[in-house]
Amino acid sequence: MRAAPALLAALCLLAIAGCETFTGADKPVTCPIVYVVGEAGKITQYREGSGTDLTEVRFAAAIADFNWACEYDDDGSIDIEIAIDFSAFRGPAAADDVGRFPYFVVIADPDREILAKQEFTLVVEFAGNSTTQIQRRIAGATFYVHDPDNGAAHQLYIGFQLDEAQLENNRKAL
User: Fold this and answer.
1) Nearest-angstrom CA–CA distance, 3 and 12
2) Theoretical Cys-Cys bridge with 156: which of 16, 30, 34, 168, CB 3.0 to 4.6 Å?
3) Is position 56 within any domain?
4) Chain segment 133-148, per-residue pLDDT in tens
5) pTM score > 0.85 for this model?
6) Domain enclosing residue 101, as ranges
């Protein structure tokens, strides 16, 4: 019977030692949460000098889906890789076969103060008579965060870089 308390103590020590391996260098990484900026989740480009009728659309695109992963570096930075699925459309007013859509990735701290912004361009080639495309782009970004142990307290925002007219049109559609 004396062996039982010693065995129990040994098991407890083993359990505590085992927990240490989960809180050390191999602890789970908490990534920032990613949001699509509602007003910037789609972009429509109209023929220059025209109205906003459907027949005047050159190109349009939307963020269809996304997923992400992150990894922390020893210098306090976080490497984030975002796979963004875009749906793109060539409209009746398109004079060429290539649509270009500027988009961004922004990281904000827990108070929603912007820490950094990176801009990219989605280039979509429409072959032949095709009018729609689904494309995936991988956006890699490195940001420095205030609290590397709490990445989930930060937010990542993605969206299209819109001009004033595009933003106003998107706001009307919401």
Assistant:
1) 14
2) 34
3) yes
4) 999 998 887 777 666 6
5) no
6) 28-173
